[in-house]
């Protein structure tokens, strides 16, 4: 491991392709001795540490990390195989006081936490780009815009569970952290100049303290094409096939779509085959993957067909929040007016602050506030309601007063 590459500034003229790591491609860390040496090297480094992880989304059921990339001044770059090194607790302890730099941190933090590797402070370059209202906030776009280099993104969707990992993939992975700290420095300066650094700090702190969401209720209702299903019996077919597929995919650690397609589930639910042969004759069941488990799918179809009426799923899932906004005009015109007024106010604030409106305040928080506003919508009451929905202080300070006025203007007359 060698020292960090020198800092780069915004380039003039055509961007320069970044084709290989500045220090060369390091060997993959794939055992206890190599991991111990990496921990020692990164403990001896200085400044923030760039962190990234690669998963096998679309190939595997789990969301585990299959490669972890690090880079730090004084330490160089490390590529860690978490299959061979599944416990990064020592590395976590060595970097406990170090700021992490990640791009789109919320995507990687859960799989890194599974390895015992968690940040105490972080800087998210994608989120910083959003707060600065850059039109494109992908890592490649920001590196090109601010540092003058282009990154190769051709391996972003490969199967990272492959072993051994091909060298071109490892080069791609190493380059993802090559300039991450330099990008952080440029973005931090821009946030400071725009008066948004404190906003960003609050957002980053919220990411560090964020707890994983609970498992979604009735996840089978997210099956693509389910809007075509019109009755409860057909929904039972979707639920039974989805559940059988999910259990199989989990057991084999294969992406569910590679076990059975959503189209196959919806087709079976729509046609309700009465025999195994009829199920096998359906187009989406003619491929090799679906035929491999045809007995399993037929058992699921039979279970759905034999359910009593009281066992069938409801048309819609019970929900503790407001209905879809498109239904408000008919169900509660006053709530629809409040929502429209709140959105108008927020768009005006977002334009003034040069922010995407969804970063100014979470859309779900706005809908809930408009549907069930405080009885007396003062700025203080609205601020409290927003904080209960996890709004950050900077968001509350910018929006509570304007939202209170919008709500007050559109509350129903008690008479």
TrEMBL record:
Statement: the UniProt record of this protein carries the keyword Hydrolase: yes
Taxon lineage: Bacteria, Bacillati, Actinomycetota, Actinomycetes, Propionibacteriales
Protein name: Ribonuclease D
Keyword Glycosyltransferase annotated: no
InterPro entries for the chain: 3'-5'_exonuclease_dom, Exo_C, HRDC-like_sf, HRDC_dom, HRDC_dom_sf, RNase_D-like, RNaseH-like_sf, RNaseH_sf
Location of the region described as Disordered in the Swiss-Prot/TrEMBL record: 1-23
EC number: 3.1.13.5
Organism from which the protein derives: Actinopolymorpha rutila
Listed GO MF terms: 3'-5' exonuclease activity; nucleic acid binding; nucleotide binding; ribonuclease D activity
SUPFAM superfamilies per UniProt: HRDC-like, Ribonuclease H-like
Alphabetically ordered keywords of this record: Hydrolase
GO biological process, one term: nucleobase-containing compound metabolic process
Any Pfam family hit: HRDC
């Amino acid at each position: 491991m060698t020292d960090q590459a020198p800092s780069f500034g915004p380039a003039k003229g055509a961007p320069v392709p970044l084709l290989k790591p500045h220090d060369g491609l390091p060997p993959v860390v794939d055992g206890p001795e190599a991991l111990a040496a990496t921990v020692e090297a990164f403990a001896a480094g200085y400044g923030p540490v760039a962190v990234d992880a690669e998963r096998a989304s679309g190939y595997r059921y789990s969301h585990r990390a299959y490669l972890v990339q690090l880079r730090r001044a004084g330490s160089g770059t490390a590529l860690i195989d978490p299959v061979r090194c599944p416990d990064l607790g020592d590395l976590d302890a060595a970097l406990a006081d170090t700021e992490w730099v990640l791009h789109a941190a919320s995507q990687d933090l859960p799989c890194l936490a599974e390895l015992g590797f968690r940040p105490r402070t972080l800087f998210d370059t994608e989120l910083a780009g959003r707060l600065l209202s850059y039109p494109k906030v992908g890592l490649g776009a920001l590196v090109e815009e601010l540092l003058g280099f282009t990154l190769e993104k051709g391996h972003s969707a490969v199967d990272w569970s492959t072993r051994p990992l091909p060298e071109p993939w490892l080069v791609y992975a190493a380059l993802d952290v090559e300039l991450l700290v330099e990008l952080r420095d440029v973005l931090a300066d821009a946030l400071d100049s725009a008066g948004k650094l404190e906003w960003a700090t609050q957002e980053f702190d919220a990411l560090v303290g964020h707890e994983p969401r609970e498992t979604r209720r009735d996840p089978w209702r997210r099956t693509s094409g389910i809007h075509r299903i019109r009755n409860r019996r057909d929904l039972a077919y979707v639920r039974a096939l989805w559940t059988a597929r999910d259990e199989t995919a989990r057991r084999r650690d294969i992406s569910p779509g590679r076990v059975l397609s959503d189209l196959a589930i919806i087709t079976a639910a729509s046609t309700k085959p009465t025999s195994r042969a009829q199920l096998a004759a359906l187009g989406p069941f003619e491929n090799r993957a679906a035929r491999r488990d045809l007995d399993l799918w037929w058992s699921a179809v039979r279970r759905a067909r034999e359910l009593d009426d009281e066992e069938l799923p409801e048309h819609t899932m019970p929900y503790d929040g407001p209905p879809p906004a498109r239904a408000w005009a008919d169900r509660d015109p006053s709530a629809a007016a409040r929502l429209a007024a709140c959105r108008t106010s927020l768009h005006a604030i977002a334009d003034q602050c040069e922010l995407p409106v969804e970063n100014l305040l979470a859309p779900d928080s706005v809908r809930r506030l408009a549907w069930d506003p405080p009885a007396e919508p003062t700025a203080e009451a609205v601020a409290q309601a927003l904080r209960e929905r996890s709004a950050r202080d900077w968001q509350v300070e910018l929006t509570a007063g304007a939202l209170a006025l919008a709500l007050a203007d559109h509350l129903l007359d008690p008479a």
